[in-house]
Amino acid sequence: MPRPHHRTRTILAALAAPLIALGAAACQPAQQKITPPPLAKATCTTTSTRSITVNTALVQDLRDLLADAKAAGLKLCGGGYRDPAAQIAVRKANCGTTYYDIYEKPASECTPPTARPGTSMHEKGLAVDFESCDTRTTACYTWLAKHASTYGLKNLPSEPWHWSTTGG
Ligand SMILES: [Zn+2]
């Protein structure tokens, strides 16, 4: 009688499926579910075909900063918001590719220092990495050091190019 046997196997498979799914989920990297922040774009002054995407809470200050820097002879562009996948890609590039490297290694042990996924101000849309701001002797850095606080941005001392609402 193959029929009852078959039915038993089907029932067992049905019972096992959610347990297998649960096990697979438990093996995923421990990530917080992050709701993307509200985002808007500030047009670069180096070229109008590019823009910097940031949190709507920051965008008007950033637009004003870009306009005032341009009036002072300094054209700027850079990178703002990063989604979680982009932050993981930066961790892989700067910290290494193992699970530990990506999710656990302290930011200070990466080159350059890079926040753990879920903890970067870029993921909140509240940080900008300005191009042409690689050192403290650049025109970019010296202007920002003088004026960025007017627009609510503070520098992270270990990274001349990184400016955020907290300095972190
Ligand atoms: Zn940055």
Brief summary of the model shown:
The protein is an alpha+beta fold. It has helices at 2-26, 56-71, 84-95, 99-104, 139-147; strands spanning 39-43, 51-55, 78-79, 127-130, 154-156, 159-164.
Descriptive notes:
By secondary structure, this protein is an alpha+beta fold. It folds into two domains: 92 residues, Muramoyl-pentapeptide Carboxypeptidase, domain 2 (2-Layer Sandwich); 36 residues, no CATH class. Helices cover 40% and strands 15% of the residues. The strands form two sheets. The chain has a four-stranded antiparallel β-sheet with strand order 3-4-6-5, covered by helices on one side. Strand 5 and strand 6 form a beta hairpin. About 8% of the residues have low confidence. The chain binds zinc ion. The site of zinc ion has 4 residues, from strand 4.
